[in-house]
Design a protein that fits this description.
Blueprint lengths: L11 E7 L3 H14 L9 H4 L1 E4 L6 E4 H4 L8 E7 L5 H8 L11 H5 L4 E2 L21 H18 L2 E8 L11 H4 L2 H9 L8 H11 L4 E3 L9 H10 L2 E4 L6 H14 L3 E11 L2 H6 L2 H16 L8 H4 L10 E8 L8 E9 L5 E9 L2 H21 L4 E2 L24 H15 L10
Helix pairs in contact: 1-4, 1-15, 6-9, 8-10, 9-10
Length: 442
């Protein structure tokens, strides 16, 4: 490893997860099993991917941990918040993502992970009925209670550093409202005034994490850190933020397949995506106000990859206004599937002389199995970024996220193209490892 300015990953890393459901328990169980040598962290790029550093005769292909100082799986300590009081073992069994044989060997460790009372507002997730909830009078009280939880957890487990990860449900859609979300001062005033319309519970978690020196990662499509007020707080505290929404199934396919259409200069008339999902996430998304948040996230992917303003002949037709291809996303709650999500994509393309063709993709995936390695990578890389002195929006983590954060107040477009995102990721790792970030992103 080269000499870099990145602080070493000494001591324990506390990963505090908002949510103790399917994604969180699959993530925690997998890490605990992997460090006992009983399972493999497959799908985790920090554990498996290799990046070229150097050119020509100097070129080497190294694992991330050989380029930059990553926290070891052995040093991770888990904590969580949830509206349901069941410990991580009980929740993992209830969620039925993993088989008993893959949970029982770490039962003792999972039983020690008991969720703290959640900062929760039922108006933001009406389908959830848990009673393990903080009795907070205002949004400011909510944030203060979470801050106390973080301080207590860090002290109790003697953690050197903390990362906070949102792996809870999708909240109802909160549009950006500049009188509250525009500046940190306005956001703080709204929290103290208990503005429940514009300040979501997730914003209280993010505010508390950053105030307590912890990077914050938004794994749902919530507006949470995607507002200028939070960017200001991240700048003030010199901490990384990342979001939003784990890129697991259908959107992963979309961000990887759309570049095939674009690179080959084929036309697109329409892309119809539908999902069936039966876990608690599916239940929450069955509420129209919560689905709206997810829909905005999932719809945004194509628009920056296949752009009608750049190629009007290829992407400027298909909808009623005849300005862009038709893009539709649907999610249907279907309990028999539980965590085994199925995504169908019907893609109507056209080629030479305008002749139509179709592509069908049917992805039978396991939502939490795909999300767990993203959780690991996002936590380890956010911790790395903090030790490297990187703060604010971490664009290099866009690879893992469905609706990457960007400064929309300055007209910046998000990068959704999977291979461009991968270039950003590799260059950031190289740079933090003291190597030249030597790939260009076109």
């Amino acid at each position: 490893m080269k000499q870099t300015n990145v602080a070493p990953a000494d001591g324990k890393l506390g990963i505090m997860i908002v949510g103790n459901g399917a994604v969180a328990t699959t993530f925690m169980t997998g890490v605990l099993m992997a460090r006992k040598g009983l399972s493999k962290p497959i799908g985790s790029m920090t554990q498996y991917d290799k990046i070229r550093v150097g050119r020509g005769d100097e070129a080497q292909y190294l694992s991330y941990g050989d380029i930059v100082p990553l926290a070891s799986l052995d040093d991770i300590v888990f904590g969580c918040w949830d509206v349901y009081p069941q410990n991580a073992f009980q929740s993992a069994m209830y969620c039925q993502v993993l088989q008993e044989k893959d949970i029982l060997p770490v039962r003792d460790e999972l039983e020690q992970i008991v969720p703290m009372a959640a900062a929760f507002d039922k108006n933001y997730a009406r389908r959830l009925d848990g009673d393990n909830v903080k009795p907070c009078r205002t949004r400011w009280d909510m944030a203060e209670a979470i801050r106390q939880d973080i301080r207590h957890f860090k002290q109790q487990h003697q953690c050197a550093r903390i990362v906070v990860l949102w792996a809870a449900s999708t909240e109802i859609y909160v549009p950006v409202y500049m009188p509250v979300h525009g500046t940190l001062a306005d956001l703080e005033a709204a929290m103290q005034a208990d503005d429940r319309e514009h300040v979501a519970p997730s914003m209280c978690y993010a505010y508390a994490a950053l105030c307590e020196g912890a990077p914050f990662i938004m794994g749902a499509p919530n507006t949470t850190v995607d507002i200028p007020a939070m960017w200001q707080l991240a700048e003030k505290t010199h901490l990384p933020i990342a979001g939003k929404d784990f890129k697991t199934g259908q959107t992963l396919v979309k961000s990887g397949f759309a570049p095939i259409i674009g690179t080959r200069c084929l036309g697109l008339s329409g892309w119809f995506s539908t999902n069936i999902l039966g876990n608690r996430d599916g239940l929450v998304l069955d509420e129209p106000a919560n689905f709206r948040t997810k829909e905005v996230s999932k719809l945004s992917t194509l628009e920056t990859i296949l752009r009608p303003d750049m190629q009007p002949d290829l992407y400027g037709h298909g909808n009623d206004d005849d300005t862009q291809y038709y893009h539709k996303v649907r999610i249907n709650y279907y309990p028999p599937r539980n965590d085994n999500k199925e995504g169908w994509d019907n893609i109507d393309i056209f080629g030479w002389m305008g002749y139509p063709m179709q592509i069908k993709i049917n992805f039978l995936c396991r939502d939490s199995i795909l999300a767990a390695p993203l959780c690991l990578d996002l936590c380890l890389l956010s911790d790395l970024a903090a030790r490297a002195g990187r703060y604010g929006i971490q664009r290099f983590l866009s690879f893992y996220l469905k609706s990457p954060m960007h400064d929309y107040t300055r007209g910046e477009l998000p990068v959704n193209h999977l291979y461009q995102q991968y270039t950003m990721l590799k260059n950031a790792i190289r740079e933090m490892g003291g190597y030249e970030p030597d790939e260009e992103m076109d």
